[in-house]
Structures are given as C-alpha cells and as structure tokens.
Amino acid sequence: MDSRPTLSVITPVYNGADFVSRCYENLLRQSFTNWEWVVVDDGLTDGTAEIVRKIKDDRVRLFSNKQNKGRGCARNLAVRESRGDWIVVWDVDDLNFPERLESIERARMQNYEFFCSYAVVVNNDLEIKGTRGFHDPSGCLPREFVHPTLALKKDIAEKIKYKITGGVGGPAEDARVIWTLSSKYKGLWLEDALTIYHEGRGINLRKAIDTNNAHLQTIKELKREKMIQVSGKYYFTVLKYIIKIIILNALQINPKLYLHFINLRDYGSLKKEWELSPERIDFIKRQKTS
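-> structure tokens emitted (290 positions)
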C-alpha cells in the first residue's frame, strides 16, 4: 500500500518561533488529512527548529540550512524533499481556513495543474484590513494571484523553480512561479478566500525596493527566454517598474512616508458582490484568543 501523502505542505522558516506552533495547530484543523508538513529551517537562530522537533507527528519533516540562504533556496529545498503529488504553499505567519486543503485536493482530482484563491489580509493583531483578489493582466504581465494561496503539481514546481534573488531574505522569489503558471498552465482560480495573509510582519521600504528590483530582473529574464514577447507592452511594463523604483529610492530620505503609500496598494479584483462570510470572520476572531 502506498503510504505517500497526497499533499506536501511546505513552510520555509527564518526565525519564526512566535508563529510555528500556531502554524502547526492551524494545519491540524484542516478537514483533509492526507498531508505531510515539510519545514525548512533556513539558518534559524531563535529555537524554531527545536519547537518543530518536539512535535510528535510522523507527517512532520524538518530540513535545515546551516546558514540563511533566502526564501528561494528554502522553497526549492522543500519542493525537492517533498513526497506528495502536489506542493502547498503555507507560510509560517499565515493562517488558513479549515477547508483549504480539501479544496486543493478537489482541484487535483479535477486535473488542474495549479490552484489559487483570494486571501484575507490581516495585521499583527489579526484585524482584517481587506481581501486580496486577482490582478488582471497589465502591460506584458499575465493575470496574477497572491503567492501564499498557491498549490501546484510537484513536477511543475520542480521545473519552474523559485528564483534566487538579492536583498534581505531574497524577496520576490515567487514572481517567476506566478507569472509562468498564469501564462502556461491550467489553474483553478477560486473566487473565494481560503488563506489569511499576515501583512503586518516585514513591511518596510528596503524590502519594497528589493522586491521591485527583483521583479524587474525577472521580467527581463522571461523576455530573454521568450516567455514574454518584446512589444510596446513590454517596454511600458519595464518603464513602470523603473519609475516605481526611482520613487521608492527617493522615499529613503524619509522612510516613514512609505507606510502611507501602503494603504493605497491595489488589492486586485474580487467577484461582484463577494463578501467574507460571518463564519470566516468568526474563525479569524477565534484565532486571537487561541
């Protein structure tokens, strides 16, 4: 009998001791149970690995980098070590509603190649800030989803690979994956929220600059690989990123100004008349006291 899990939930962690137990407890609440949890200790210094080792669950597997190598390396290691048919992105500081894995399994059974959904955005106090939906195609870029909602076939994840980027933590490692999946593969774009995205941690100007530089580099690489065609749309997109990077660099004179721009960020499109159900609002409220 094949004892391999169907879904491999991957969680790269760098100093996430404040979240890792909550993350595991959230995973235990999933209605679908044929999963493994692949945790990558990316050069931790805060005892997170010890917390994971104490979990008595054969479905939990821990791998370690001796030094911090960034999210791209950590995610690629998690994908390589996974044994499931599909990879499920599950970041340590995010939460997910109990039916998320079950919804992903249905997409797998329907022969989709990847899955994504809306994400409820919360701050450090788990207060709801809004919902991130799907961004329509813009310039030379295809339709986009928010990465923490992603699940995909393992062989596709191994083929695309996460990008190794510069900057603290290796930001924007997911851009290549998102744009490639949207352009080339059959996905189920679920118009409902299954992920609770923690946006409060790690918001800063330096990360924004590094992220946009990495996006621009990825766009140029995809153009060289002929995944993006050279056209007016391509040059428009490149120019847009260059202008944005110039503005962000100028904000370094007074970095606090950047926090005001965060509130103007476009969260993408939602299905007409969609709203978060009372049951899910209550689920989020309960996490504050758990």
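The chain is about 35% helix and 20% strand.
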